[in-house]
TrEMBL record:
Identification of the protein by name: ARM repeat superfamily protein
Statement: the UniProt record of this protein carries the keyword Repeat: yes
InterPro entries: ARM_PUB (IPR058678), Armadillo (IPR000225), DUF7032 (IPR054296)
Ranges of residues in domain U-box: 153-403
Domain DUF7032: 5-114
First and last residues of every ARM repeat: 262-306, 305-347
Keywords per UniProt: Repeat
Amino acid sequence: MCSLRQAIEVISSLISYSHPIKVFAVKWQLIRNKLEELCSSLTALENCDSIQNPILSGMISAIVASASDCYDLARRCVDLSYSGKLLMQSDLDVMVAKLERHVKNLFGICTAGILTQGFAIVVSRPGVNACKDDMRFYFRDLLTRMKIGDLEMKRQALLNLYDVVAEDDKYVKILVEVGDIVNILVSLLDSVELEIQQEAAKVVSVISGFDPYKSVLIGAGIIGPLIRVLESGSEISKEGAARSLQKLTENSDNAWSVSAYGGVTALLKICTSADSRTALVCPACGVLRNLVGVDEIKSFMIEEGAVPTLIKLARSKDEAVQLSSIEFLQNIASVDESVRQLVAREGGIRALVRVFDPKSACSSKSREMALRAIENLCFSSAGCIIMLMNYGFMDQLLFFLRSGDVSVQELALKAAFRLCGKSEETKKAMGDAGFMSELVKFVDAKSFEVREMAAVALSSLVSVPKNRKRFVQDDRNVGCLLQLLDQEEANSGSKRLLISILLSLTSCNSGRKKIASSGYLKNIEKLAEAEVSDAKRLVRKLSTNRFRSILNVIWHS
């Protein structure tokens, strides 16, 4: 009876002997592939006690007999001594089928329990500075255990595999290069053993994070198994599958595959379920967000109720869930007015305003995301801006403009800047709320960008007569502008904006009087002499006002 060592040597010799064959090249490549699979499996079994496993011993004898027949075919192809091409092609096809049966039989015998943890010798994990060849050998050993080991061997092999690839990125490249390890991982996602499925999903999640290997996973047909895990796997398996799909769908080319396997429905079910954990909901939202770029898939999502589902998640107290759901709502409605209207009808604007509310317990990060979403979804629609005002958004925005964290305050200023460019009713509402006094403070900011935005926004607000009157009622507002004008360098952008604001204020009688009597008139005249833009117009307006005052005095004397 042949030993494992003899069988391995016979197959290795046959592989080497077949390489120079020039005829029937495709057939011989198939044969070599099967022989290499057999050799890999037999090498892993070499450390098992085959004497105590008679079925395995019989299998080895049958493999060696087939190898002998294959050697005879190889000799005839090398010598070109076969009787006919058609007959030799037929013989080679038979050999391929025979070797395939051996591979499957060996796999079936071993997974039935003949190869167990008790018989196997464990290959130790190489050290930190191990060479690539040592790591390849270790991965091949793990691969064999995943292919033909019992349940415990498979589980342990997957655990070891995850530990290695999660520890260092460089090992992922080596792993992908080893045999059909990706195909085995994909097949294990469909395992009825939840523990095996769980560990396979964790490994796949790591590999899917590397762009060069995403195509390898897609080529191995991973989308279908991942969707099936989402539908019926354990919570941990689902989390791994969702993370993998989120990374794989960053490339929109893979969106159709997810949809074709029913992924959208499975993902929305996860988002709807009250039992789903944050670690599952967030990547599920991420996958849906990646898919909305395909119009047909977006339409299907809307039909399936994605918008109300994600609005409900935006009301969650969990920061991560809030961020993921709000980002999805932004993406799905960003360039589609009908979807923006749907978001508004379903209560999406109210939900975002509640997240932004300073009285809520939401984090600064959630507020920032909510404000960005409000800008993107509402500021282009007069109707939505009215809804915002009705929900108290103006007061919230003013609060953060006055006393928010730096990051939120900057966003609030940008939002105020954009709102100032909208309708006159919006400008009036902002004037009534008290935005102008706050914007004056920002005109004196260190950042040129902030100064510019504040000045432009203020100029827009005081263009409304009602706002001008309100603005000049506070002496500090006019005094601050004149003081800043005195500080600014000639012809600077901020100086021109300040003059523009003062010019608007001269349309109001009390505004003209306060500027003319402020003591800064000589400074304005100097700017006019220096040809600073609009300074001459401002001087003319103020001079006209003084001339009229003199006439009034004479007339009434």
